[in-house]
Amino acid sequence: MLKVLITYAVNDELIIVNLTDCEVKYLRTGIGKVKATIRLMDALVQERPDVVINMGTAGTVVHQVGDLFVCRHFIDRDLQKVDCLDLQYETDSSALLHEKGYCRDWGREGVCNTGDSFLTETADSHGDVFDMEAYPQAQVCHMKQIPFIAIKYVTDKIGENSIQHWEDKLADARKGLFDFLNNKPLI
Known about the structure:
Blueprint: E1 2-8, E2 22-28, H1 33-47, E3 51-60, E4 68-76, H2 77-80, E5 90-92, H3 94-100, E6 109-114, E7 129-131, H4 134-143, E8 148-157, H5 162-168, H6 170-181
Parallel strand pairs: 1-2, 1-3, 3-8, 4-6, 6-7
Antiparallel strand pairs: 4-5, 4-8
Helix pairs in contact: 1-4
């Protein structure tokens, strides 16, 4: 039986999914890169999942509230700012997902940009969706050779009272994520 670990940041993002022929475990990572990474590392050792699915909310600049993105490419906007130090700030999980045959045809591809702040503007950042947890989870899974994918529901347009819109759209996000994850085959 396939072991799936589903990560989410806040209690309002938790949804119970019905993945056929899978043992599903849930991990609340909390908000922020460091906390999410530490909690995921502990869970990877304990649970030994075959695949990690991060589900949650994100902001956007150019897309619409209610859009849903399947992310396999991740950027760390904080590390990108210190590019002169030659630190890795991008990772892509496509190859390992493809090799294992997971999450094929899961829909609208997007780039997830992660940082330790709730964005109110995106001066030097690029991506389809912006969150606070996905990049380090993708990087840890890459290092451990565990397939990783993130499903992000757009709750707000960055720069347009984003924090209030995020809070107002959490119920819509739960429904959108539930509908998506319960209607997609993992393999």
